[in-house]
Write a structure and sequence with these properties.
Layout (H helix, E strand, L loop, with lengths): L6 E5 L5 E2 L15 E5 L29 E2 L4 H7 L3 E2 L3 E6 L5 H11 L6 E5 L4 H10 L15 E4 L4 H11 L3 E5 L16 H17 L3 E7 L11 H5 L2 E13 L2 E13 L7 E7 L2 E4 L19 E8 L2 E13 L7 E2 L5 H15 L6 E7 L11 H13 L7 E3 L2 E2 L5 E2 L4 H10 L4 E4 L2 H7 L6 E4 L3 H9 L14
Parallel strand pairs: 6-10, 6-11, 7-8, 7-9, 9-10, 15-19, 17-18, 19-22, 22-23
Antiparallel strand pairs: 1-2, 1-3, 4-5, 11-12, 12-13, 13-14, 15-16, 16-18, 20-21
Helix pairs in contact: 7-8
Length: about 475
């Protein structure tokens, strides 16, 4: 029988194995990545498993295995779909310093469970984590004997050491900060590689699914804003959350530093929900009522180019201010500058205005912004965007107490959008006197009443006529406008 070699050469980038050293990996094409490692046994390591796997009818599965654990942070529960799902893995990504570690530490102290919480830090020492916990005011006990009393901390990235502690502590919640610091001798000798991340993440995910626990993984992002490492890491977890930061937001209490938590993937909930936090010296504070958070407080009339839109973020209605500016194009081709609303959508709305209103925008550079820095993806903001562009091009300001919602089609029609009753109710409660929206059938379907002054429109021409009460052709643009 051929004797098995004691050492092999494994690629530190992709994990490909070769019996002898090569200058270039034949699998991934990287140079000088083959490293001599011990030839481990080919038997797959499955900690905690005994005997052969058995199948069972789906009807015999205990529904309690899919129960949730309240995190103690309402906005985090909203994005996760109602709480932390047991036996799930959550990947949290974001820019450096945005608050990922702060969110995990606050959730570890506030989670509503009597079990232990294991906080694994590969980037900070235990003393540094304790100083941050004291600064956040987590020294006291929370619900179910929470606070720092039940948090176990280990400052290591070695997977074998972490698994030993996991089997000893048996936590119900595992926090890993961060995935890039994990390493194992079985995945190569170089920490931080793609193969290391995949292997270590798989082992930790397998452990929490076998021991009725939940896992949070922090991941760094690249310059493009994507989670560093392979996309397969996102496929391995159940939920992918992104932490975003806006510019300073002018809210009810002055200038606030807002953070948005979005779900890019969620096997146990909707990806439309958004969590809103404000960052202060005491850490992240959840924003429960965001109705006026993104509106600019003004006295008197609105300036030209500004429209208030009622948009949906999951199940919550938020009023946002859409700002538009048009100037003559500096080149032969007009350009669109918009990062909070997709530039393709801005171009489509501008084309509909030019076609159906005769408002010339093809020779203009278009600048579009959303006050507060929140990113808008919902189609219900298109009618407000069209009104903002029309106001900016003509120099005619919109009424100050008007809220707008509706989808604008290529034919110039205003299509109904979801939850119109909730949008109208939110606008009325916040003191707005008029609401511009689609046909009455949408309101009747949602069960809306006659709250406020409803301006019912079927197309963009009718909408502009109701707002200004005059002709809406492009030739009627005031002489002093661009």
């Amino acid at each position: 029988m051929k004797k098995q070699k004691a050492f092999i050469f494994k690629c530190s980038a992709c994990g490909h194995e070769e019996p002898k050293w090569l200058g270039r990996c034949p699998e991934c094409g990287e140079w000088n990545t083959l490293v001599e490692t011990a030839n481990s046994s080919p038997v797959t390591r499955t900690p905690g498993r005994k005997g052969l796997p058995q199948s069972l009818p789906l009807s015999a599965v205990d529904p309690q295995e899919g129960s949730r654990i309240p995190s103690g942070i309402g906005e985090l529960d909203r994005v996760l779909g109602g709480g932390i799902m047991k036996r799930s893995a959550v990947l949290v990504g974001g820019e450096p310093g945005i608050g990922k570690s702060t969110l995990l530490l606050q959730a570890a102290a506030a989670v509503e469970t009597k079990g232990r919480v294991l906080y694994i830090s590969g980037e900070e020492s235990a003393g540094q984590v304790r100083l941050r916990a004291d600064r956040l005011g987590l020294s006291g006990s929370g619900k179910n004997g929470g606070g720092m009393e039940r948090i176990e901390i280990v400052c290591s990235g070695n997977l074998e050491e972490i698994e030993t502690i996991l089997n000893a502590v048996k936590p119900v919640l595992v926090m890993v900060d961060s995935a890039q610091t994990l390493f194992s001798a079985d995945a190569g000798s170089v920490p931080g590689t793609i193969n290391q991340m995949k292997y270590c993440a798989f082992e930790l995910i397998s452990w929490v699914k076998e021991h009725d626990a939940a896992l949070f993984l922090v991941a760094h992002v690249t310059k493009e804003g994507l989670i560093a490492g392979p996309k397969t890491l996102e496929h391995m977890v159940d939920t992918v959350l992104y932490f975003e930061q806006n510019d300073k937001t002018a809210g009810l209490s002055g200038t606030q530093d807002c953070r948005f938590l979005r779900a890019a993937k969620n096997r146990f909930g909707s990806v439309d929900e958004i969590g809103i936090f404000t960052m202060s010296e005491k850490g992240l504070t959840a924003v429960e009522d965001a109705g006026l958070l993104f509106l600019v407080r003004r006295e008197g009339d609105l300036p030209a180019g500004v429209a208030t839109a009622a948009v949906l973020e999951g199940t919550r209605t938020i009023l946002v201010e859409i700002q538009a500016l048009t100037i003559p194009a500096k080149g032969a081709v007009s350009r669109v500058f918009s990062d909070k609303i997709d530039s393709g959508r801005v171009s489509r709305v501008a084309a509909s205005l030019e076609k159906h209103l005769g408002l010339r925008l093809s020779d203009q550079d278009l600048y579009v912004n959303v006050a507060g820095g929140i990113r808008i993806t919902e189609v219900g903001a298109e009618l407000a965007l069209a009104c903002a562009l029309y106001s900016a091009r003509t120099g005619l300001a919109l009424p100050a107490g008007l809220v707008i919602a509706g989808e604008l089609s290529l034919t110039g029609e205003i299509r109904p959008v979801r939850r119109m009753a909730g949008r109208i109710k939110t606008a009325t409660n916040l003191g707005f006197v008029s609401f511009l929206g689609p046909a009455p059938e949408a309101y009747a379907a949602d069960g809306a009443g006659t709250a406020g002054d409803l301006l019912i429109v079927k197309d963009i021409k009718t909408a502009i006529k109701l707002i200004y009460g005059t002709s809406v052709r492009g030739k009627d643009i005031p002489q002093n406008s661009p």
